From TrEMBL, chain A:
Part of an electron transfer system. Could be required for the formation of a functional nitrogenase Fe protein. Probably accepts electrons from FixA/FixB and reduces a quinone. This is Protein FixC. It comes from Sinorhizobium saheli. The lineage of its organism: Bacteria, Pseudomonadati, Pseudomonadota, Alphaproteobacteria, Hyphomicrobiales. Keywords: FAD, Flavoprotein, Oxidoreductase. One of its GO terms (molecular function) is FAD binding.
Automatic annotation (TrEMBL), chain B:
SUPFAM superfamilies: Adenine nucleotide alpha hydrolases-like, DHS-like NAD/FAD-binding domain. It comes from Sinorhizobium saheli. GO terms for biological process: fatty acid beta-oxidation using acyl-CoA dehydrogenase. May play a role in a redox process involved in nitrogen fixation. CDD domains: ETF_alpha. Keywords: Electron transport, FAD, Flavoprotein, Nitrogen fixation, Transport. One of its GO terms (molecular function) is electron transfer activity. Its cofactor is FAD. This is Electron transfer flavoprotein subunit alpha. It holds the Pfam family ETF_alpha. Binds 1 FAD per dimer. Belongs to the ETF alpha-subunit/FixB family. The keyword Transport applies. The keyword Iron-sulfur does not apply.
TrEMBL record, chain C:
This is Protein FixA. Keywords: Electron transport, Nitrogen fixation, Transport. One of its GO terms (molecular function) is electron transfer activity. Gene3D superfamilies: HUPs. InterPro entries: ET-Flavoprotein_bsu_CS, ETF_a/b_N, ETF_b, ETF_beta_N, Rossmann-like_a/b/a_fold.
Amino acid sequence: MSKEKFDAIVVGAGMSGNAAAYTMASRGLKVLQLERGEYPGSKNVQGAILYANMLETIIPDFRDDAPLERHLIEQRFWLMDDTSHTGVHYRSDDFNEPTPNRYTIIRAQFDKWFSRKVREAGATVLCETTATELVLDGGGKVIGVRTDRAGETIHAEVVVLAEGVNGLLGTRAGFRKVPKPEAVALAVKEMHFLPEEVIGERFGLTGDQGCVIEAAGTISRGMAGLGFLYTNKESVSLGIGCLVSDFAATVESPYTLLDAFKDHPSIRPLLAGSEVKEYAAHLIPEGGYKAIPQLFGNGWVVVGDAGQLNNAVHREGSNLAMTSGRIAGEAISMIKSQGCPMAPENLSLYKAMLDKSFVVKDLKKYKDMPALLHTNSRNFFMTYPQLLSKAAQNFVRVDGTPKIEKEKATTAAFVKARSRWGLFSDAVRLALAWR
Amino acid sequence: MGTRKTKAPPPAALGRASTKKDLPDHFKNYRHVWVFIELERGQVHPVSFELLGEGRRLADQLGVQLAGVILGPPGDSTRHAVAEAFAYDADLVYLVEKPLLTDYRNESFTKALTDLVNTYKPEILLLGATTLGRDLAGSVATTLLTGLTADCTGLDVDADGSLAATRPTFGGSLLCTIYTLNCRPQMATVRPRVMRMPQRSNKPVGRVIRHDLRMLEDEIVTKVVGFLSDGQSENANLAYADVVVAGGLGLGAADNLQLLKNLAQTIGGDYGCSRPLVQKGWMAADRQIGQTGKTIRPKLYIAAGISGAVQHRVGVEGADLIVAINTDPNAPIFDFANIGVVADAVSFLPALTEVFIRRLAPGNHIRLVN
Amino acid sequence: MHIVVCIKQVPDSAQIRVHPVTNTIMRQGVPTIINPYDLFALEEALKVRDHHGGEVTVLTMGPPMAEEALRKALTYGADRAVLLTDRHFAGSDTLATSFALSQAIAQIGNSFGTPDIVFTGKQTIDGDTAQVGPGIAKRLNLVQLTYVAKITSIDLSARAITVERRSEGGTHVLKSKLPCLITMLEGTTVIRRGSLDDALRAARSEIVKWSAVEAGIEDITKCGLRGSPTVVKRVFAPTPREQKAVQIDTTEKRVRDIADELVASIFTHQPALQHELSSAGSA
Ligand SMILES: Cc1cc2nc3c(=O)[nH]c(=O)nc-3n(C[C@H](O)[C@H](O)[C@H](O)COP(=O)(O)OP(=O)(O)OC[C@H]3O[C@@H](n4cnc5c(N)ncnc54)[C@H](O)[C@@H]3O)c2cc1C
Ligand SMILES: Cc1cc2nc3c(=O)[nH]c(=O)nc-3n(C[C@H](O)[C@H](O)[C@H](O)COP(=O)(O)OP(=O)(O)OC[C@H]3O[C@@H](n4cnc5c(N)ncnc54)[C@H](O)[C@@H]3O)c2cc1C
Ligand SMILES: Nc1ncnc2c1ncn2[C@@H]1O[C@H](COP(=O)(O)O)[C@@H](O)[C@H]1O
């Protein structure tokens, strides 16, 4: 056992852990952060979108030195079938603003930067150190963690569990259940390296402008899933994710999905000539509001993905992670500054603050979405994209068929595939879930 | 290999490099090409002959002489080395013969070689990139404060007579051409087997210039107290084998290495491996082929279950014929192999061995143990 | 006993990419690691310290971010870390690198006690010359022991050291004296995991950062590009082979027939082999 005792131990140096450690250390707490990866970010899936506001709240001048890849000026949503995509593109010069709203980042680099800030704020950061279990006293209060460094333990008044989606510490201690397969998606992802100029040309970008494509449809073979493509400076991150329960129910492997996605005629030309250097698979919590476990207890709190705080509908995760980490940090600092113990009744402050933030509000808004997408995935991800593609092609192709007949054919195809009642109920349910 | 690589377009002048172009006057009378003849335990290392071949070409291009440098104890082996240097076309030999040069020691060899350079002033000095050559070259270059380009794969002289030394960089993904601009001699080391072995002739012994080494045994701190030979059985002389069969991770299990050994034995070859097999402890380190292992130059190289990473590739490119067996039709090894077979090596190797047995020794039914 | 270990932070060469047009290294996203060979040197140094007492100082010359490598060495259990960083060092070749490192080692000697052993790795995976070690030894006038596979014994009072040195076809047993410089061969030992307290100490220790002047280097012309007699004139990609491998057709064939075809193809490519293999193999 190490003789040292800390005010707080943060397990994990991802987005949520860094936010929590930074917040507490800069408020003068004695903080120890443990990360099992070789360095912060090394185990994290690379290439992502960063939402600036939430980081700005924590580190206002982050733009000065954070490793940001491109600021996003264009977003494409594609509905795909096997040979086509129907899309909505939104591009605006307004996004070329002095303090842009969204950036692409490479997690390995970004997390390293964030971690440096944490260290500069005064926290002690240990990498290549895994917390193997929580240490409890006789009264069931968490008093520290055991590490994989010769099984040595280290103590603190409170432990912040920021261990990501499949965090073992919390589940081992019985504080939360292993997330259900229908509440987590498995995303696989590759980094495709391309020279900066080529990316600029292919996506119509200059300087560090960036573009994002999000795609759904038959690419997920009828499972609830989403494909994505983000432009970084010298690479393109590309991936696809589907619910774990769906993968289990079908014979599809994530790799084949990704391969098919890459090979789709709409995607392939965007990647031509690239060199693939990284392959990663990672889980995303998708259970939404209903899957949120107990977030605090005697001497512990849970933040970020570990608490299922992830908005699958909007592909937001890191901002919820950062915000929950920050709020937990603020709550703990407040309790500490008043000299109070890290007991459940005091730590409930964290939950109360979180409830008032956008994190819980957003998740509440979409609380029915995960179930809907899960039970109806075949329609949303197979039937509709195909129908839509057919309709669009009907509309675009000029072949002498009277327009009125084209319209009829389109409607007929929709009805045939899904029945009027089915269509109606899907629309209603989608609207309700979105509302 | 050396000539092929340097036939690439002439180097573009680099801004900062050209500022060093002027050779100081005291280096202007440095002339001739020297090759250090590596003599250890009575044997000349074959890399020395390979270097004499390269040295000959450079000397002819420059219109200067090629000299061998031999440091050794008085006796037959040293005399034999002198004869061999001439047989491999040296014009003259610098010889330092002293009992304290019996075993290689850095102190004595560094002094002997730097003394020779300071006295006779060569413009180019080549050494083998062996454990001995690298140990010596670093000390000599630092003593002389001159440039040293290590592990070259190509040597040439450019229009103004400078040595253009080409070597792999960044783990073999790129090559770079390096010049030593305003210092002399221009030093380079070359790994065994990277250069072709030249023809041996029966030239009579030529001019030998003897030089003294003023050093006493007491001045040398390091003493050789023993030598443990690798022994005959495990002594992989892989680098010089004519036929090499190698296995990679694709073989799947240490047991399958027997399949390699069977094939190697059948066709009279040696066997080696890619690096991961050494790391797994499946094979001894001196059987590793590649950038951080051995460079080979066999007539036939058969790679089974090897992906063909660049670090492996640089060690085998000198082979006359490369055969690759791999289950993945897109494996990079097929980019530089001559013949490819998309097949499972574990089932294919025994079949190949049998066909060879049949074709090579008809009626001779050797049963190999598995 | 004071031991200095030279380590270098290098790009993980397995991840290097080359720009297809400009032929320059694309560094983005390429992780850096401690030169793998240096870890063997570090582990050996730690073992010697554990056995004989004393301190291990790790030293690197590199950009500010090389601090990461040093911090890591501290978690493994090194006692002190020195980062030699100065833009004057940019463009150093092995001669200039070994000059700067040897000056820094001398300064380490002045500040923290004269080293008894200096360790380097066998070679780096980016420079890959194996010359920096010998260069340092010469400059500091240390006994040079390269390609050391094993340290057999150290007798501190007699200042004697016995090592096994790898050479062509075998191993030499050498008896020598301290202080010396050892370039350590890769082996089977893996680098240790430091204790929790090692890790805590590493996370907090201040890394000594020296500029050229602070390292006691007066003559800056011996550093960096100016102090390097060699100049890289050109960087280019290896010429790809014009042709890919001729593939033996394997569709719907028995393994034996494929093997037959392969052997036939080998002998078509190199007719001479047929004879040579027969005489060798049947023996
Ligand atoms: C493919 C993919 C794309 C995504 N894209 C986006 C996006 O574009 N925008 C967005 O906002 N979100 C995105 N997300 C979600 C986002 O990545 C996560 O929500 C966010 O990273 C959660 O942060 P976290 O700190 O909770 O967990 P993590 O970032 O997963 O961090 C957990 C950390 O804890 C460490 N750890 C775990 N257990 C232990 C232990 N026992 N001891 C020590 N250390 C431990 C891990 O090594 C890890 O570093 C994406 C997710 C995926 C998988
Ligand atoms: C600094 C450095 C130095 C290095 N030096 C060297 C070196 O000197 N030498 C060296 O070799 N490597 C070296 N490497 C490692 C090199 O980068 C590669 O990792 C290594 O060569 C890969 O070995 P491999 O081909 O056996 O394994 P893999 O890359 O894993 O390839 C295995 C191959 O086997 C195929 N396969 C699988 N199953 C079968 C089957 N049943 N039948 C047939 N084929 C099958 C696969 O398709 C694959 O192509 C070095 C790396 C670094 C970073
Ligand atoms: N910049 C550097 N800083 C510290 N040590 C170095 C540096 N460059 C080389 N070395 C050491 O010298 C050894 C040989 O390097 P090289 O000559 O580049 O192959 C390495 O294994 C290191 O131990």
